[in-house]
Amino acid sequence: MTIIDGKALSEKILREIEQEHSELEKKVGRKAGLAVIIVGDNPASQIYVRNKIKACERVGFHSETIRLDENITEENLLSEIKKLNNNNNVDGILVQLPLPEHIDELNIINAISAEKDVDGFHTTNIGKMMIGDKSGFLPCTPAGVIQMFEEYNIDLKGKDVLVIGQSNIVGKPMTLLLMRKHATVQTCNSKTKNLSEKLQRADVVIAAAGYPKLVKTTDVKEGVVVIDVGINRVDGKLCGDVDFEEVSKKASFITPVPGGVGPMTIAMLIKNTFKSYNQKMN
Ligand code: GUN
User: Where does the Tetrahydrofolate dehydrogenase/cyclohydrolase catalytic domain start and stop, copy by copy (predicted)?
Assistant: First the structure.
């Protein structure tokens, strides 16, 4: 059984980008820049944003955090985005989700210039992903999972892959990227019948449902590859959607939480920001 070390892999990616960036920065005379907008004070969002800014510092990028009040109007939020769209020092713009209920999330995402949408959530980038146009940005979490498969030489061709969860951020784009790898993909949601049976048939399981210990050892077959995208807090302790202790006894590969998919998501955000910076240079 191999534990997929997302932390080490993300470090490797960040080191490579740090080096390439420092060389390019000398030539062009400015750093790559990421702007992060956070609305309100959701504690989980605060942690995610802090980690994203820390990663920017780690690779030498310029970063700015724009903290906005929970009660901001959609109009004022749109005008903040417009300023960043026109700011030449900003290559990537990210609006941390979720947003307060009175704000239309899709409207906000699509107000970000598609060329700066390093989250890969803009309708244009989703469309590019769908048809395989490589000029767009891929959503960071599913892109990070694919990178893990590649690094560990896990071949997906012809494999039965079960994706649990159908969010716009993870489940849906994950399914598309797996299709590109010629996997046979089945997706599940909270209404799915006989989840346990489906799990037992899967060669690869990607758990992105947000329920602690949803995937148990009785559900999976010997040699399964398990990717745990869940980030749950139980009794103050961080855990995924997979019962790691038990499932790791049957798995051939498994990701831990923390230290698995999380750091890879951040590495992909940095990679997308660097891609945007490079695209502007050319
Ligand atoms: N909220 C949870 N995950 C994400 C993410 O990847 N990007 C943004 N912007 N918000 C999130």
Answer: 4-119
The overall pTM is greater than 0.90: yes
Calculate how far, in angstroms, residue 15's C-alpha sits from the geometric centre of ligand 1: 23
> Binding site annotation covers 165?
yes
Q: How confident is the model at residue 281 (pLDDT cuts 50, 70, 90)?
A: confident
Q: Of 3.40.50.720, 3.40.1190.20, 3.50.50.60, 3.90.380.10, which CATH number belongs to 140-261?
A: 3.40.50.720
For residue 19, say whether it is annotated as part of any ligand binding site.
no
Q: Pick the residue whose CA is nearest to atom 3 on ligand 1.
A: 97
Active-site residues, by number, are 52, 96, 119
Task: Provide the ipTM.
Answer: 0.96
Sorted by sequence, the CB contacts under 8 Å of residue 35 that are 6+ apart come out as 63, 64, 65, 66, 84, 87, 90, 92, 93, 94
The CATH architecture that domain 29-113 belongs to is 3-Layer(aba) Sandwich (3.40)
